[in-house]
Amino acid sequence: MNLAKSFSIYTAASFINKGMMAMLAFFLSNYILPPENGVLSLYSVFVSFVLPFVILGMPTSLILEHTKLNDKEYKLYFNSALALSTFSFLILLMIFLVAGNFISGVITVPFRLLLFGMLYAYFNLYQENILAYLRMLNKPVRFLIISAIKDLLEIALVVVLVIQLGKGAEGRILAGIIAGAAIFIFGLLFFYKNGLIHSQVSKKYLKEEFRFGISQVFFQFNVFLLNGTDKYLINYFNPHDKTGLGIYFMSNQFAFIINVLVGAFFFSYQPILYKFLANFTEENKLKMLKIKYIFAGFLLLSTIALCVAIPFIYHLFINKQYHPGIPYVAWLAFSYFFWGLYALMLGFLYYYKKNKVVIVFSVISAIICIGLNYFFISRYGVMGAAYANLVTYAVLFITLFITVNRVCKLQLPWLQFGAIFKGTK
To answer: Under DSSP, is residue 187 helix (H, G, I), strand (E, B) or coil?
Structure first.
């Protein structure tokens, strides 16, 4: 299946998964008002914090290791990696049960909702692994079907719990938990049937996955900071009024549509990139750059189109209490545009296993993110969070582009446009 076709299928799946949730905000804006939406925002920050320590980069390693291991060794690797993630989750759960009340006080979200978040993080591991496994097998149609069933179940639960029963933010969270539990049960059966869950664990693969997982924890923790610092600091500077945070969170959901496109492209492109790098000829360099440039142009046009459409969408569909957030969307959308360019470069570090570079870059990114968000939000309030996002992602993309080209010594003909778009030098 060619890249364009698989990208279109993954895009459809991603829009069902994330885009439909954003569209659902049209209706939920009349049932979940800004203060409760602020609670949802902080809940999402907590889940984003926990996820890296549970997942440990397993979905990425599943795709990477499949190009290097035979079927028997791959099954052993899978089960060892899953055992490591499960052990990590159990340790985190024990810590939370002991210190949960303190954590709840810091985040200002009820203990029971954060406990749901812990469970959701582990359920999410199985969802991400199923989708990564199907991407590795180049099965985008099955990817679409499984994603659609899970997401339609979650939407149905949202309708019942939030709209019909009026459970507000807690109902929205419960819908995700129940749908996640369903995919967890399906995942256990799916992986067992395919011989990926069994009784054998390899010490060698545990060590390999742990080393890779550490670098991924740093990277994913960096992603958590990129996604969560703005929301936490908005709440930090005004902890007793979550209205502004709720309005900002709604704006971010719409801007996130650009990130949906980024995720769909990455799903399609990642296995192809690794094949190019395994046979890194001049011809494959040109093919790879052509794909990158075409996607960057498509993403730019999509970002501009979203910015033009958002004011009309808000005035037609969204509760007026959220309208102050319209100016945030463009800044956040272009932030995700630069994140898309950033994502185009990450695969090189993964393939060449530049784990130390990933760790160092993640630390630098965290410092930049926290510093810029603190500076802008302390001076400009909620609008400052939107400013900070755009500046942060732009700076990080430029920094990563320079770092990757130097560390990986790619020698790519970035400016040979004639050769790139003709396919020959």
So the answer is: helix
